[in-house]
Amino acid sequence: MSSNDQPIRSFQAVSQADAKVLVLGSMPGVASLNEVAYYAHPRNAFWPIAIASFGDTPIEKIDLQQWPYAHRLQLLKTNQIALWDVLAECVRPGSLDSAIDKNTVKVNPILQFLDQHTSIERIVFNGKAANAMFSRHIEKVKESRWDAYDVELITMPSTSPAMAQLSLVEKFAVWKDALKVSV
């Protein structure tokens, strides 16, 4: 078995009991796995978008060096945002979702997460792949359990640098309202 055949594992969810928005990615990329940190690739737009959404610094002026990872996570929690991935484990050479070996996929217990976080009102998918994986692996139980959840589902453009059709400013314009919670 080559190193590319070894399963990779997602991180634990970042959340607090009062979270209202759950952001779901697909599976952390290589940079994130190496750093053991969500969205660690320096060109990933997620952290600048989150920081600009809840602060007064324009997105073009966000300096992530001034935002240690622990402060970024606290920013999400303070603003009732939870963060996780659809997949718990898979085999994937590299970082592209298209390289995920579908026969090796294990999903995170998202419905159990929703049972424990009853204030979640919106799931925001970080890209079409996360939405597709959720639909394929989680919504299968829709007929038996999904109707019990009153959760809005929104798919946003991926914040990955691989999604280069939109600039950072354009991604922010699309994303910022999806992260806002109702009062």
Report on this structure:
A 4-stranded parallel sheet has the order 3-2-6-7. The chain starts with 7 loop residues before the first strand and ends with a helix. The protein is built from 6 helices and 7 strands, in the order ββαααβββαβαβα. It has helices spanning 30-35, 46-54, 69-78, 110-116, 128-137, 168-179; strands at 8-9, 21-25, 81-85, 87-91, 101-107, 122-126, 152-156. The chain has a single domain, classed as Uracil-DNA Glycosylase, subunit E. With 183 residues, the protein is of the alpha/beta class. The model has no long low-confidence stretch (mean pLDDT 89).
Produce the secondary structure layout:
Elements: E1 8-9, E2 21-25, H1 30-35, H2 46-54, H3 69-78, E3 81-85, E4 87-91, E5 101-107, H4 110-116, E6 122-126, H5 128-137, E7 152-156, H6 168-179
Parallel strand pairs: 2-3, 2-6, 6-7
Antiparallel strand pairs: 1-4, 4-5
Helix pairs in contact: 2-6
CATH fold descriptor:
Uracil-DNA Glycosylase, subunit E
Task: Provide the structure class.
Answer: alpha/beta
Strand order of the largest sheet: 3-2-6-7
- Residues in β-strands, percent: 15-25%
**What is the string of SSEs from the N terminus onward?**
EEHHHEEEHEHEH
Spatial gap, N to C terminus: 51 Å
What's the number of helices? 6
Query: What summary fits the major beta sheet?
Result: 4 strands, parallel
Contiguous low-pLDDT stretches (5 residues minimum) are: none
CATH architecture descriptor: 3-Layer(aba) Sandwich
Count of discrete structural domains: 1
* β-strand number: 7
